[in-house]
Model the fold of this input.
Amino acid sequence: MNEHTEPQYLLGRRKLLAAAGLTAAGAVWTVAGGGTAQAAPRVTPRAVSQLSARTRTAAGSALVVPADSLPHTRTWMAWPDNAKIWTGRGALAAVQKNIALIANTIAKYEPVFVCANAASVAAARKACNARNVTVIGTIPVDDCWMRDSGPIFRTDGAGGLDAVGLNFNGWGNKQTHANDALVAGRIAAYVGVPFTAAGLVSEGGAIETDGDGTLMATRSSIINSNRNPRMTQAQIESAMCAAYGASKVIWFTGISGQDITDDHVDATSRFLGDGSGLVQMPLSTDTDVWSNDERQQYKALSAATDAQGVPMQVTQLQGPDYNRIRSTNPDFVGSYANYYLCNGAVISAQFGDTNADNAAYDSLSALFPDRVVEQLDIDALGAGGGGIHCVTQQQPAV
Done:
């Protein structure tokens, strides 16, 4: 099933539902990790000082990770080709089809650059064939999760751009990542911008930013011995804020050890703007651990204030009925909240629950009235534990 050298059991997002008989059992070809374990980069409290929350360009302007709703120069993605990761009949071909669909759809709105291994460039170009897609073979990859392995770009509002790497370590050494650990720095070099390693180990999908000083994250993913074993919460917060140009972190408890990410925030909670956000909510009858996590995130975010002290206004985004979606995979991630904002569009998922899909379309259309909402069937990615936001990384315009 996975690239584990020894049995390792990670409960998926819906495995508890399956155990209760509420979800039909299906073929599992999730990318739940494994492979060559590699030591995480050592991040010590001293390393936090490598970056300052007041990091400045030569011109003196502060560098900040902007909100993803602002204009982009391009979107970065990665082409998966490792059959030892994407095991199971048809799994690799299916996820490649999803990646191509996402890339070709985003390309209607902005340029897309896809990193592929040299041996797979021709196949990636054949599949990602929209006019606005560029496939490059000089930045090797292990997998497709560019949100987690890719660079976090920062701007200064005056034409300055740099990139920060979060020291990707395969979600706590759960999956081989020799190439993906280097992707962030290599993309920064390709773009020709300064690159700095952050003072912590994390992934882009683990941290949400409003671009104006406030971050969201789960403790389970980041304050975790598989990422940052020698750091306190205060030290981790300092490193996160330094990397993102922020001053406040809204923490959720999260869920540790139940999926490969240890509960990434971008599958459940997102910022909509200053003082506003959304949380995907479960059905009232859902009582599994993930549904309770969604409720807890909504409660915590609704009680929080942003970096300016403004009380958060939170919108509920109804999730799908797992008994009515196409997939019968007990690990399936059905996240409408894992949408991607590109220039002029919201690229979101649909799962085959017609009522929920239509409601999500209406909600996203109302939240982003100036953008086209595109709903895609990305079930292979959902079976692999992620979604559209997970495989994309924006390069902001300057």
Notes: Residues 15-35+68-396 form a domain with the L-arginine/glycine Amidinotransferase; Chain A fold (CATH 3.75.10.10). The chain has one domain: 15-35+68-396.
